[in-house]
Each structure stands twice: as C-alpha cells, then as structure tokens.
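ESCALATION

Customer reports they have been waiting on this structure for their group meeting. Please prioritize. Original submission:
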Amino acid sequence: MKIVMFLFVFVLTFSFASATCTNYLDDGNDADAFGSVEVDGVFSQDICRSNTELTEYYCDGNSLKSASYSCASCSDGICYGDTCTSINECNPVLRKWCDGSSWLDSGYCTDSNLDCYLVDSTCSVSSCTEGACDYENHKYCSSNTWVDDDYCDLSRCGDDVHSFGYCFCEDSDALSETDCSDDVDDDCDGNVDCRDSDCSGKEGCLCTSGETRTCSTDEGACISGTQSCENGNWGKCSGVESSEELCDEIDNDCDGDIDEACTCLPGDTRDCGANLGVCKAGIQVCQEDASWSLCFGASYAASQIEECNGIDDDCDGKIDEGCGCVSNSTQVCGSDVGSCQKGLQSCVNGTWNDCVGDVEAFPEICGDLFDNDCDEQIDSEDDTCAHSNVTLLVEVEEEREIAVGDECTLDADCDSGTCMRGICVEEESIDTSSSSGLNTGEESESRFFSNGLSSEEKKSSVLWYVIPLFLFLLGGFFWYMQKKKKNISSVPEKKVASMPRTSLFSSRSPPVKQRKGIIDKELDTSFQESSRLFKK
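Update from on-call: job pushed to the front of the queue and completed.
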C-alpha cells in the first residue's frame, strides 16, 4: 500500500510571477534515489520505463528536464547498478548482497552471517527481522510474519527511501479515505486504508490479520466456536451460527424463541368450520410454506337468508330468526271458555293463517244459561244482562201455577183453556215487568242462587231445579196415560164430559190463568237463537 508523502511546498513569489520548478526527495538528477519535480502544481516523478531503464526528472533552473539511465535492475523509480559500497547490504530487488564493491548472490538466503533471509520475504524462512521492509515485494515483518497490509503507512515502510517511489502520494483534494483496500493514501494524511480512521468498521477493516475471537452462541441450534481474521475480515466460525428461522420446532436463529414467525408447522392439522345448523366442520392441513390449507370436508351455509323451515340455514346458531312460525306447523287457536271452542291454525311461509274450526264469542243472550260472549259470566252475571228484565227458565217454572183440571189429550178435550201435559188448564197473562211477576236479572239471581256461590256452584244449583221438574212432568205423563186408558174403558164419553173438574193438587189455591206453553216457547226461542249464532 502506498503511503502519502507530505509535500509541503511554500513558494514565496509575487502574484503573477513566472513558472517555478522544484525538486523533491532527491537532489534532482540522481538516478540512485527516487525523486519528483513540481512545476506550477504539476508533479513528475522518476519512473522505470523497463526493468533496466529509468527516466529521471529534475529541474534546470525553472525548467523541467529529464534523463534516461541504463540499470542492472530498475524498480520504483530507482536505478540499481552493478556496483555497491555498503558491505553486507542485502538488496531484495537484485536478490544479492554487497561485498563492498559488487553485488553477489551466493548464500543470499542461507548464509547466517549475512541474514539476508531476515529482510527478504522470498527466502521463505519462518522468521524475519521485526519492522524490516521488503521494498521489492512491498511487505513488512510483523511478529516474524511478512504482511502487506498498509505497507506505505508512515508507521511501517512509508518512510523507507527505497519505498518512496512505490508509496509516492501526490497532493490530493480528497477529504477522506475513499477506498479502504487499494493500498493508496487517498487523502494523503499518512494513513493508508484500514489504518485510516475513515475505514474503521468497513469491509476489509473489521479486524487485524492473525487475530481470533469467540463466535456464535450455545442458544437454540447454535454452537459456539472461534474465528480468525483473514484480510481484514473475520473468517468462518468453527461452531454453528444462526440461520433463518424455519418452522421445524427448532430455534434456528438462536434468539430464544422457537418458530416465532410460523403460522403452523408443516403436517399439523386443525378443525375448521363448525357443526352448526346445516353447516359441517372440516379439517385444515399445514402446508410446506407454514400456511394453512383450505378447509377440506366442510360444508357451508347454502343460503345467507334464513328460511322459515325449522332449520338454521345461515349457521348462526339461531333457527328461523325473524319468522313468525315454522312453515307447515300448526297450533291451537281461539278459546274454550263458555260457549267458545278452539280451532287450528297452520303456518304458511312463516306466517300464521286464520283460525279454522273455532267457535268465536258472540253477544250474550240473557236467560239461556250459556256464556255466549265467553267472558266466564253467564246471563245475569254478565254486565249485558245485569240491568235487564231477564226471565230465567227456572224462574218461569217457579212462577207458574198449573190448574188441575180434566185429563186431556188435545185442546178439544177441554171445555175451555188448553190441554197441557194431559190436563186442561186456563191461561192467564203474567206481567213480567210487575213486582209480583218475574223479577229482574239481579233479583232472580239473588232469589235463585244462594249467596256466596261460585259460577260452577250456581250452574249445579240450576240442575237441581230442572232435573226434578223434568222427572215430575215425565211421571205425570205416564200417570195420565194410564188413567186415560182406565177412563176410556169404564166411563161413557158423555159422563166424562160432564164430570166435574177436580184440582190435581187439592191442597193448592184456585188455579191462575197462564199463557200457553210459556216454558216451551222460551226454550224454543233460546235454542233457535243459539243455533243461528253457532251456524255463523
């Protein structure tokens, strides 16, 4: 490597003076030493035109001159002749030693008295003189080792007179070392390449040749070792160094984390999808690039819109959300309170259709013993009938007085009145609005039902009146028929007609006239009205 040569030239001249010529490093026209000449900032240095020819530059006044010399050997701008004056001087260029007058080559690398092998790297011995400069091969001795790094540095061989030609540095405008491996002092500061602080830490300047250090670590897959410096760079580590992290359950990059950048390990599997609604779960496999494959074997929602079919079509865990009902399903509708009857509804497209087969409530009919409006209130219990003159069928029976008369079959069998249940009776109008006649619904209710009875108990009480009355009338009918048979067989027709009418109940007061068939008429009217409403 070439060392910078400080050329401080201070020329005191007047402005716009004529050109000047200056010799550096030698006495001018001196072939035995390297030199250079500056003329107006332009340098010309001694140079070997061939192995045996030198061109020497020198000043002749303020003019630049040159001369040519023939040499035994020419190297780095110096012409070496056949004669010498320094006894035992070793010359690496000639590979000869001086006996005081001429150069000899016998014993050059072997004679221990000469020690030329200690200053010439080509003698290939295991030792050398510390700091010796092999100016032909541009190497210097360091710790019994010949090295060529930074040869021209001033701390090494940059100030050796035989190396001036090799290490010559023209004045440079460079502010820093631009190349850290060209053996040139680019900024002419006397520090070459890695010896210049500008190259610290750069490639080729990371270490000093022969230096060693511990490398790698024992973390993860790594194994610690050692490495040596080679040409300013650290060589290969003898251990195992970190590498790119792989998805193999090993800490390849030796950072203490295993497979930290991996989504999965190749060959691994996992469930995917879900067994929810119409959807079915599948399986995913980790591929070689540590990414999950598609979900195999899974089925997904056929429709994103929920249908009203009793199935979770969109696989969200909810069935028929937004639907009023499940299609084709049925439900009971209506009421079974009072005279009402329940029906059946069917679901069509998520909506309940009309109730079919039910009996709906209708306005209360007062006096028919039915809860027509299905509010659990019968007749006078209902607000509709509470303030009306309502005649209960049982009350009619209580108010009715039956006159005992002749037995009859038809109305024609009676002198007057009508034939009712086998007996001739007289009819008398009953004022349903008078206080002695039929009472209002509230009065009938208080007289007919005992205080404190429930609705069911009241219905049961009515039956206790109706059933005995029915049995009484039925018994009377059979008694009449038997009596009639006897009279027909034993009494002439005229006698029967003239027979005095006796009371059926001798202990009762004289009969009162009553309208014909009032109970039958009330029952017929109620049944006809109920039948008409049910048919609706």
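Sent to customer with the following note: The first helix runs from residue 164 to 167.
Escalation resolved.
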